[in-house]
Amino acid sequence: QVQLAESGGGLVQAGGSLRLSCAASGRTFSRYSMGWFRQAPGKEREFVAAHRWRGDNTYIADSYQDSVKGRLTISRDNAKNTIYLQMNSLKPEDTAVYYCAADTDASGSWDVWGQGTQVTVSS
Questions:
Q1: How far is 25 from 114, CA to CA, in rounded Å?
Q2: Phi/psi at 68 (5° precision)
Q3: Cβ of 83: how many Cβ atoms within 10 Å?
Q4: 8: phi > 0 → left, psi -120 to 50 → alpha, else beta; which?
Q5: How far is CA 68 from the centre of its chain?
Q6: Quick one: DSSP state of residue 106?
Q7: Where are the beta strands (DSSP E) in the chain?
Q8: Is residue 6 within 8 Å of residue 69, measured between CB atoms?
Q9: Structure confidence by residue, pLDDT tens digits, 72-113
Q10: Edge-to-edge, what's the strand order for the sheet holding 72-77?
């Protein structure tokens, strides 16, 4: 059973930066596609970024929501079983609970989720 744990959220002023981390348990982390999502108060959870791999350990691509392109960067360190979301030039509209997710069976569906970490950007 894979488990995910996010960290690194907090309060930051507009224009500032944060780096979120998501630590994964499990020995086959390097085979999983991993993603970041967020949910703002009163809104639906939305896609932020993804780092996609095939089941044969072949990298596919990174993808981003249009509103975060150029400001947020997803990366991973398989040796540490961790993915990151570097967040630069933050805006008040980036305020949300951020979740990481894993596609553990290469089905294209996100089947494992973390508990979330709060990011608040003040104006």
A1: 11
A2: -110, -5
A3: 28
A4: left
A5: 12
A6: S
A7: 4-7, 10-13, 18-24, 33-39, 46-53, 59-64, 72-77, 82-87, 96-103, 112-113, 117-122
A8: no
A9: 999 999 889 999 999 999 999 999 999 999 998 878 899 999
A10: 4-7, 18-24, 82-87, 72-77
Residue in the structure block whose two tokens are 């630590």: 23
Query: Would you call 93 helix, strand, or coil by DSSP?
Result: helix
85 CB-contact burial (10 Å; exposed 0-12 / middle 13-18 / buried 19+)? buried
Dihedral of CA atoms 72, 109, 41, 100 in degrees, nearest 10, equals -50
Contacts of 45 (CB under 8 A, 6+ apart): 37, 38, 39, 99
Residue with tokens 């709060």: 118
In 3D space, the residue among 122, 104, 120, 106 whose CA is nearest the CA of residue 38 turns out to be 120
DSSP secondary structure letter of residue 1 = -
Per-residue pLDDT tens digits for 108-122: 899 999 999 999 999
| H runs (alpha helix) in the chain | none
